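agent> call fold_tool(seq_1)
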Amino acid sequence: MAMTETKTKPDLPVQIAEAIKAAIISGQLIVDERLPSEAELSAEFGVSRPTVREALKRLAAQNLIRTQRGATGGAFVNRLRFEEAYGQQITTSTLLLSMNEVDFETACEARFTLERACVLLSAQRRTGDQLATMRAEIHRQGQPGLSDEAFCASDVAFHRALVDGASNPVLSYQLAGAVEAIEPLMNMITFSARSRARIVELHTEIADAIDSHDAERADSALADLSDYTIKLAQEVLRTRSPKD
C-alpha cells in the first residue's frame, strides 16, 4: 500500500487517516482486507505508533475500519452501509443549517423538492410494511393528548417511510438529512400555528395515493403539504417580526 510521506504535515493523525481513507475509496484497500500492523504503518509513515493509533481511531469513528483481537486480529476495512451512515448525514445537515442560518423557505424548498422525487417512486415500489408504517403514524397523529414532541417525531417517521418506499438506498441516504434534520426545524417554527387535523388530512391523502399507486395524486398532495407549511411559516414569522 504505497502512500505519500506525511512527516512534514502539521496534524499527522489526520493526514494518515486521510491517506488510508483515500486508499479505501480508490479500491487500493478492499472490504475485509487487513491493514498493515501499527508497527508497519509507523515505519511506512515515519511516525510513532501512538500517532498511527490515533489515525486508526479516527477511521474507526467513521466506520471505515473495524478492529479484531486475537492471533488473526488487527484492523480491517469495514463495509460501510447506507443505514450506518444516516446518523452522520443527519448530524452534518443539522450543523450546516444551524451554522449557516439557512432561512426557512430555502430549507423547505430543498426538503420538499427532494421528497417529491421520492414520492413518485414510492407510489410504485412501496412495500406493505412501509405503507403500514405511514398508516400507523397517521393514526398516532390523530390521538388526543399527543405532545408536540411526539407529533413531530411521528411526522418524521411518516416521511421517513414515504422516502424509504422509493426502495432506493442512495435516495434514502440523501434524504436522511432533508427529512430528519430539516423536518424538526420546520416543525419547531410552525408547531404553534399548524392544524393537526389538516396535517393528518394531507398525510392521509398522500398515503391513500401511495396505496393505490397513484403517483400524480401523491405528488399533488405532497405539493399541497409544502404550500401549507410555507404559508404557515410566513404567518408565524410575520407575527414575530417587530411592528413598525
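agent> call fold_tool(seq_2)
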Amino acid sequence: MARVAPVIPLTRAIPITEVDPSETMRCPTGVGELDRVLGGGIVPGAVVLLAGEPGVGKSTLLLEVAARWAQTRGKTLYVTGEESAGQVRMRALRTNSDSPDLFLAAETDLGVVIGHIEQVEPSLVVVDSVQTIGSSGAEGTPGGVTQVKEVASGLIRVAKQKGIPVILVGHVTKDGAIAGPRTLEHLVDVVISFEGDRHSGFRMIRATKNRFGPADEIGCFELSDAGIEEVPDPSGIFTSVHGDPVAGTAITVSMEGRRPLVTEVQALVVPSSLQTPRRVSNGLDFSRLAMVLAVLQRRAGVRCHTLDVYASTVGGARISDPGADLALACALASAMTDQPLPEHTIAIGEIGLAGEVRRVADMERRLGEAARLGVTTAVIPQGYDLRNSGRFPGLQIIEAPTLSYAVNLLGLRRKKGE
C-alpha cells in the first residue's frame, strides 16, 4: 500500500465547544408542515432531496416554498429544467405564489445553473429536477447515473461553500424508489418523500433521512386548483361519516412520526367462488393482513378460510404501525359476523401469533388524540395502568389481554347456529 504524505491543513482543528452554533441556526421556510418534517426549518448549506411520483404536487409545493422564502428572506432562485419560465409564471399566478424577489431560470446545464447562482446570489436555490440537469464534464445523457451523481455533487459543493440551502427535486421509479444512484441519498443531508393518491387531494410529506432532526416526522397538505394548503389537523380526513354504525369498520390511532392520526380501517368479506380465496389490501401491509386473519381463525375462532377478504383504509392513509392490528382484526370480525362495533370506540394494539394483544409505543399520546375527537371507549393492551388515572376525562379505557377477549367484549363472535 502506498504511503500518503501528510498535508498541512489550511485551518486548524478546534474544540467542539468553540464552534459557534448560530452559524447553522434553522431558517423557517414559511410552510409550517414542511418545517415540522425538517425539524424546524432549513439549515444553511443543507441539501434537501424531495422525491415523489409525477403529478403528486412537488413543483407546486416548492414554488409555494420559494415564494414565501422570497417574501421573508430575499432573493430566491428557482431553476426549472422541465418547464419554461412562462409556464412556471402561469402556475405562480394561479396559486398566488409570486414575488419580485423570486427569480426563475429555465436551464438544463449545470455550469449555467451555477452561473445563475453566482449572478443572483440567492438565499435559497430550488432545482426542479436534478434528473433534467446535465454536466458537460460527465459522460452520458441527463438523468443517467453518472450525470445525476455529477450534477448533485456540483450543487452540493456550491451549497457548502456558500452556505446556501438547496432543494433538489428527484423522480421516482415504478416501485417508488428514488431514481438515480443510491449514493445520491447518501450525498444529500435530508431526504423527504411526497406521497399521495392522484385521485385524492390529500398529500403527505415524510422524512426518510435527516441529519439535522428527526427522520420519522410527517406533514400533511391538501392539493386543490388554488394550490397547496397545509392541514395541521388531519385526523378527520382518515375517517368517514356514518349515519348509523356500520359493520366492518373500526377506528384506531396510528403514530406517524410523533403525530397521532385517527384512522378508520374498513373490511368486507364475501363467500368465495375460488379454490384459493382472494385477499386484497389497500393502505395496509398485505403480510399483516394475512397474519391477522390467521390469528383470528386459530386463536379467536373466527373462521374466514372460505371467504374473500378486502381490507382498506379511508382517505388514502397508509398504515405501517403495528398498533393498528387490533382495529384491523375487529373490522374483519365485525364484517364476518355483520355486527358493528359500539359507537365512538377505538381499538389500539399489536397482535401476536399466540393471540395476545401487545403494548405499543406512545399510548398516552394516542389516547389523548382520541379523547380530543370525542371517542368514549378505548380497547387497549394490558399494562398501562391508565384506567383510573383521570388523564382522559370522558374516555373509558378497557384492557384486553388477548384477541379472543377483545372479540367477545365487543360482541363480534357468531352465535351458535348462525
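agent> summarizing second result for user.
Residues 232 and 243 are 26 Å apart (CA to CA). The two ends are 79 Å apart (CA to CA).
agent> awaiting next instruction.
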